[in-house]
Inverse folding.
C-alpha cells in the first residue's frame, strides 16, 4: 500500500507513513498485541482464521488509542456452526494444519498450527557483513477458538501465540570469535474470554477479558544478555446502538502491565522523536521492574447528513497512571460517497503515544544512576 514499508532491524515491523514502528497499534479482536509479524515479515496469524483485516494509516476513530503511527485491527472468524473442516498445508517455507468442527448444536471449535521449515533448506538468511553470518530465522505460531452460541448471546474463548529464534554466527577464520555473535528468542502467548449479547434489536454489548505474556531473550556470545518479560491483563467493554440515522459507540479499555527486565552488560534506549538516549550498565545480573496501568474511555457518533455524506464525531480520553498524565483527544471525520468508485474523506484529531514500558524502566534507571 502507498506510504507503507517494512523497516528491517531486529523486528521487521511496518513503517506506516514515516512513523516509528514502536508507535503502531496491533489489535486482534480488540486485544492489543506487541507485534503480529515473524522475523521474515509473515504474519503470526494463519490466514485461514482471519475474518477482517483493517489497516488505518492515519486519523483513525476515537475507539483507537495509544498510537501515533498506524493501526492494524484484525478480527478472527468464529468456528463454523455445523460443517467440519480439515486442512493440511505443506510448503518449503512454512507448513501447518487447521482442524475445525462442531461439538454440538451450540458449541464449535477450531485450531491452527504452523511451523517454519525454511531453515531446513537454506541455513543462511543473509551474508550480513564481513564478520557475521545471519542464520535463517526459525518460527512457529498457533491460534484456537471455542465458541458457545445462545439465542441472543455467545461466549468465546480464544488463544494465539508465536515463537521466533534468530542467530548471528561468526564466519570461520575470524579472530576472537567469542566476542561477536548473538542469539535472540521471542515468545508471545495470549488468551481471551469474550462475552457478546444483544440488549435489544439495535443494541449490542461486548466485553473481553484478556491475558497475554511476552518474553524476549537476547544473549551475546561474550556473556551479556537482556531478558524482557511482560504480563498484560486487559478488560475491554464496548456498547453499540443504532438509532435511526445515528450509530453510537461507547467503550472503555482498562490495561494493567507487569514488566520485568533482567540484564547483564549495557542497554541503550532512545526516544523515537527527541533522539534522547539513555543507557544502563551492570557487570552482574540486574533486575528492574514495575507495573503500568492505563484507563481509556471513548465515544463515537456516526451519522448520515445526507445519503452521500457521513459525519463521525468522537472523543477519546486516556489516563496514564504511571506517568500521571491525562489525555483528552477529540476526533472528527467526514466521508463523501459520490459513487462506488469515488469516495472522498477527511479526518483530523489529537493523538498520543506513551513510551514503551521497557523504555521507561531503562530511562528511569538511567536517571537514578545520573542522580547517584
Amino acid at each position: 500500500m502507498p506510504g507503507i514499508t517494512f523497516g528491517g532491524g531486529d523486528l521487521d515491523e511496518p513503517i506506516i507513513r514515516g512513523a516509528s514502528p514502536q508507535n503502531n497499534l496491533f489489535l486482534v479482536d480488540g486485544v492489543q498485541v506487541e507485534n503480529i509479524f515473524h522475523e521474515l515479515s509473515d504474519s503470526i496469524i494463519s490466514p485461514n482464521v482471519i475474518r477482517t483485516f483493517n489497516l488505518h494509516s492515519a486519523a483513525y476513530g476515537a475507539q483507537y488509542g495509544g498510537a501515533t503511527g498506524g493501526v492494524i485491527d484484525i478480527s478472527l472468524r468464529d468456528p463454523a456452526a455445523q460443517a467440519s473442516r480439515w486442512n493440511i498445508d505443506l510448503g518449503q517455507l512454512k507448513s501447518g494444519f487447521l482442524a475445525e468442527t462442531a461439538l454440538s448444536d451450540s458449541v464449535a471449535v477450531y485450531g491452527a498450527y504452523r511451523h517454519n521449515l525454511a531453515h531446513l533448506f537454506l541455513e543462511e538468511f543473509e551474508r550480513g557483513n564481513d564478520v557475521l553470518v545471519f542464520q535463517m530465522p526459525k518460527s512457529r505460531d498457533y491460534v484456537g477458538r471455542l465458541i458457545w452460541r445462545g439465542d441472543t448471546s455467545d461466549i468465546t474463548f480464544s488463544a494465539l501465540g508465536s515463537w521466533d529464534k534468530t542467530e548471528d554466527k561468526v564466519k570461520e577464520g575470524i579472530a576472537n570469535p567469542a566476542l561477536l555473535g548473538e542469539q535472540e528468542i521471542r515468545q508471545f502467548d495470549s488468551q481471551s474470554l469474550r462475552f457478546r449479547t444483544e440488549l435489544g434489536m439495535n443494541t449490542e454489548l461486548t466485553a473481553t477479558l484478556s491475558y497475554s505474556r511476552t518474553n524476549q531473550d537476547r544473549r551475546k556470545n561474550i556473556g551479556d544478555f537482556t531478558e524482557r518479560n511482560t504480563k498484560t491483563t486487559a478488560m475491554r467493554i464496548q456498547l453499540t446502538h443504532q438509532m435511526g440515522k445515528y450509530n453510537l459507540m461507547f467503550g472503555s479499555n482498562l490495561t494493567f502491565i507487569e514488566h520485568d527486565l533482567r540484564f547483564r552488560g549495557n542497554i541503550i534506549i532512545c526516544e523515537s522523536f527527541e533522539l534522547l538516549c539513555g543507557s544502563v550498565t551492570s557487570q552482574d545480573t540486574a533486575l528492574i521492574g514495575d507495573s503500568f496501568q492505563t484507563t481509556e474511555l471513548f465515544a463515537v457518533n456516526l451519522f448520515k447528513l445526507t445519503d452521500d455524506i457521513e459525519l463521525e464525531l468522537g472523543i477519546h480520553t486516556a489516563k496514564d497512571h504511571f506517568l500521571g498524565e491525562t489525555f483528552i483527544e477529540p476526533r472528527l471525520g467526514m466521508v463523501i460517497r459520490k459513487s462506488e468508485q469515488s469516495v472522498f474523506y477527511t479526518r483530523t484529531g489529537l493523538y498520543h503515544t506513551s513510551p514503551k514500558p521497557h523504555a521507561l524502566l531503562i530511562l528511569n534507571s538511567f536517571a537514578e544512576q545520573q542522580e547517584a
